[in-house]
Design goal:
This is Putative HD superfamily hydrolase. By secondary structure, the chain is mainly alpha-helical. The chain has a single domain, classed as Hypothetical protein af1432, CATH 1.10.3210. Helix content is about 65%, strand content about 5%.
């Protein structure tokens, strides 16, 4: 088999491990915790559905956004999932995930390895319009699941409304509709007592 093709197959087989990375969030029906592959797929779908709400569409590249969302959580294969409200876990999150990104993407042919690492890094920096939109979508998804389920992952960690707003401040830079949605979801979660 051609070396390039074999490298790509090896990468795809390695990324299958993302299905085994279990997150804190439960599915909306509360039947079980979601895995990271499911979260990535759901976020990709939401990015497309909510794209109509982006005020700066002329500055955005939806395919680029989808690529970022597709690759950014792959690092969890080696680094694990860090709960967004885990302040201690966030202290070395970038370093752990950066090492994981370099290791994982090195399985790909050189040009693809560089592209995927650049996509991952752009997402993590949250500076470009595409990255801000992608991060907004990625971060609102767990809020939606916690709001429309029993909020078990929030209840387990005693998460407060103030923590949600402080931790998800990046959403303020994204689509206004998503920022407003966060406020609406928090109100619903408070009424359901999913937030402390």
């Amino acid at each position: 088999m051609e070396e390039r093709l074999q490298q790509q197959i090896n990468f795809i087989l390695e990324t299958d491990k993302l299905k085994n990375v279990i997150r804190r969030n439960f599915l909306s029906d509360d039947s079980r915790r979601e895995n990271t592959a499911e979260h990535s797929w759901h976020s990709i779908l939401l990015a497309q559905i909510f794209f109509e709400y982006a005020e700066n569409k002329s500055e955005l590249d939806l395919l680029h956004i989808i690529k970022m969302i597709t690759v950014h959580d792959l690092v969890e294969i080696y680094a694990g999932d860090t709960f967004i409200f885990d302040e201690t876990g966030y202290e070395d999150k970038f370093e752990r995930e950066n090492a994981a990104a370099k290791k994982l993407f090195s399985l790909l042919p050189g040009n693809q390895a560089e592209e995927y690492y650049a996509l991952w890094l752009e997402f993590e920096r949250e500076e470009t319009p595409d990255a801000i939109y992608a991060c907004s979508i990625d971060k609102i998804m767990p809020v939606m699941l916690n709001t429309y389920s029993k909020g078990t992952s929030w209840r387990e960690a005693n998460i407060t409304s103030e923590q949600v707003f402080r931790t998800l401040k990046v959403l303020e830079k994204g689509p206004t509709t998503v920022w407003n949605l966060l406020h609406q979801l928090v109100k619903i979660s408070e009424k359901k007592q999913n937030l402390m």
